[in-house]
């Protein structure tokens, strides 16, 4: 949303960040409540992450305000560069998540919060919270990858805990941006109105596309947006130097789609083999 507001609609970068967070706080709250009702949220883990992420997100907004005062006219380019780095990091994290199938046999639905787990949760929260407060990026992919790598949660718990914690974190960051005067409420309201048919269409199609293909496509979009913002930041990076990165990511996306297509064919073949009736044993003919 943030790069879309900047690149397509020409919104000032810091306003795009604040407005995106305010909009996302509302939508994530709906999703977080739904996951809480479905008992797919690890509340203790979410609480420990929030202890780190909430103050870190507020600190990120304060740092952003200080950078704006110190940088003056160069602030927009600086923020675009920071936002580009966050988008590229999030895109890579999304790609990594698509290739974490090797960890599935070690997954668990709950985790005993020993001291080391609490420290890991707070540390993850601090990192993600600060990045989100400054750039509005990372509330989904970065938390999800952390939950997989650090805590090895099953997918349903990853999604539920991610969305529930993101709702808390986004409200903290959004309120901080509202206090700082970085939110365009009219723009946020228009986005919310437009998101209703968008969510309906997206939900309709998402169940028809393999999850890994969706993740890899999202990674392509994030990395492409990060590249576009780098070009807009005025760093003097030649366009030719940026070409290999999106090409490599598109190749990865095609590989993922091919892998999912082959897996689907193999699964369909196996199902047909199981459903096929066993052939009757041949009846021996008369002996001569």
Properties at a glance:
single chain, 288 residues, mainly alpha, 11 helices, globular
List the helices and strands and how they pair.
Elements: H1 2-7, H2 13-37, H3 43-71, H4 75-98, H5 115-135, H6 141-151, H7 155-180, H8 185-206, H9 211-232, H10 239-242, H11 244-275
Please trace the helix and strand order, writing H or E for each element.
HHHHHHHHHHH
Shape: globular
Report the C-alpha radius of gyration, rounded.
23 Å
* Percentage of β-strand residues: under 5%
Counted by DSSP, the helix tally is: 11
Residues in helices, as a percent range: over 70%
Class inferred from helices and paired strands:
mainly alpha
Oligomer: single chain
Count of discrete domains: 1
Q: Care to count the β-strands?
A: 0
Question: What composes the largest sheet?
Answer: none
* Distance between the ends: 83 Å
Q: What average pLDDT do the residues reach?
A: 79
Unreliable runs = none
Task: Give a nutshell description of this structure.
Helix content is 77%, strand content 0%.
């Amino acid at each position: 949303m943030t790069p879309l507001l900047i690149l397509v609609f020409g919104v000032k970068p810091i306003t795009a960040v604040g407005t995106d967070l305010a909009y996302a706080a509302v939508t994530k709250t709906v999703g977080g409540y739904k996951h809480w009702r479905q008992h797919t949220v690890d509340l203790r883990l979410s609480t420990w992450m929030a202890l780190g992420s909430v103050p870190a997100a507020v600190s990120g907004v304060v740092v952003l305000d200080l950078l704006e005062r110190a940088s003056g006219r160069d602030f927009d380019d600086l923020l675009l560069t920071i936002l580009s780095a966050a988008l590229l990091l999030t895109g890579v994290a999304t790609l990594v998540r698509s290739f974490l199938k090797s960890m599935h046999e070690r997954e668990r639905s709950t985790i005993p919060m020993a001291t080391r787990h609490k420290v890991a949760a707070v540390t993850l929260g601090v990192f993600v919270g600060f990045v989100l407060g400054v750039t509005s990026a990372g509330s989904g992919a970065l938390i999800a990858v952390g939950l997989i790598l650090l805590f090895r949660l099953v997918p349903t718990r990853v999604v539920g805990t991610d969305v529930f914690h993101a709702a808390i974190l986004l409200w903290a960051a959004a309120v901080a941006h509202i206090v700082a005067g970085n939110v365009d409420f009219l723009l946020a309201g228009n986005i919310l109105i437009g998101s209703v048919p968008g969510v309906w269409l997206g939900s309709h199609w998402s169940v028809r596309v393999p999850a890994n293909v969706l993740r890899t496509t999202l990674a392509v979009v994030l990395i492409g947006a990060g590249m576009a913002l780098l070009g807009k930041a005025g760093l003097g990076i030649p366009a030719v130097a940026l070409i290999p990165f999106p090409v490599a990511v598109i190749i990865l996306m095609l590989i993922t789609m091919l892998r999912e297509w082959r897996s689907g064919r193999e699964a369909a073949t196996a199902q047909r083999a199981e459903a096929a009736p066993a052939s009757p044993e041949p009846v021996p003919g008369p002996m001569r």
